[in-house]
Amino acid sequence: MTEPGLTDNYSVSDHINSIIEHSGEGLIDYCLYDTGEVVPEFVKKYNLDGAELVEQDITNVKDKKIKFIKENMSIIKQDFVRHNSMIIADTMIKIICDDLKFRDKHNDYEYIMMNSKLQADKEIQKDIKRNSKNKNKPKEKTNYKSKFASKYSERIESIKNSDIIQEKKKKKKAKFEK
């Protein structure tokens, strides 16, 4: 999201070019940017505070040596849009491991440690998905859920919760105005 009054209407290119203008070229090797979808209700919440989604335009970056990595890393935590720190950390570790492999250091302890961390994280994510699928499985197959409902159930639930929260706020405001 943009910062009201600081980065209004900034794209990814604008953010990077601003860093380059203040610190010079060659400082940035990689740019990891978010391609995740954000539920419109949350975008609206940020819009009310003057913030907007950062446009994913990377075409006007001054330093053409920068490598760009797109990741879907948006998550909702306590009604706020945040970046998933595990995805960011894993992506950074992958970059380091690739660099070590390129320099033929895949037998060094640094590579071995980081690569084993990546593998452990993958197993943890698989376990989380397996457990969530098992918890959500109906005991009897009486209610069929459409593919849409299955895929977007969390988003649908967050929209419902957002509506409930907005209604509560309106009711509180109406009580105080009386």
Principal-axes shape call: flat
What is the CA-based Rg, rounded? 21 Å
Q: What is the string of SSEs from the N terminus onward?
A: HEHEEEHHH
Task: Give me the count of strands.
Answer: 4
**Count of the separate structural domains:** 2
Segments where pLDDT lies below 50 for 5+ residues? none
Instruction: Tell me the distance between the termini.
Output: 36 Å
Helix content: 55-70%
Strands side by side in the biggest sheet: 1-2
Could you give a short account of the major beta sheet? 2 strands, parallel
Provide a count of the helices: 5
Average of per-residue pLDDT values: 80
Overall structural class, as computed from helix and strand content, comes to mainly alpha
User: Which strand-content bin applies to the residues?
Assistant: 5-15%
Give the helix/strand layout:
Elements: H1 12-23, E1 30-34, H2 40-48, E2 67-71, E3 74-77, E4 80-83, H3 85-102, H4 109-136, H5 147-177
Parallel strand pairs: 1-2
Antiparallel strand pairs: 3-4
Helix pairs in contact: 3-4
